[in-house]
Amino acid sequence: MEELIELEECPCCRGNGMLVHEGGWNVQVECADCGSHTVFVEYENETEKLEAEHKVAMLWNIGKVIKSNIGE
Ligand SMILES: [Zn+2]
User: What is the pLDDT of residues 32-72, one digit of tens each?
Assistant: First the structure.
């Protein structure tokens, strides 16, 4: 059973943040609305994966995000 990770609203637009895994070896939090995102955190196993998820969630929740300049 997976531990629930709470994500605050996007610090830029108050959209919904979501955990995005890429390639099965790194994770970031990305805003579904404006595309702002945290840095990627890499992991190599299930334990590190959980730690990585918590780390990016923490970065997101304190507002450490990279604002996307790509308009859509
Ligand atoms: Zn946003």
Answer: 999 999 999 999 999 999 999 999 999 999 999 999 876 55
For residue 35, the CA-to-ligand 1 centroid distance in Å is 6
The verdict on residue 55 lying in a domain is yes
Domain that holds residue 32: 17-61
Domain count, the chain: 1
Q: Give the CA radius of gyration of the chain.
A: 12
60 CB burial (10 A radius; 0-12, 13-18, 19+)? buried
d(CA 17, ligand 1 centre) in Å:
7
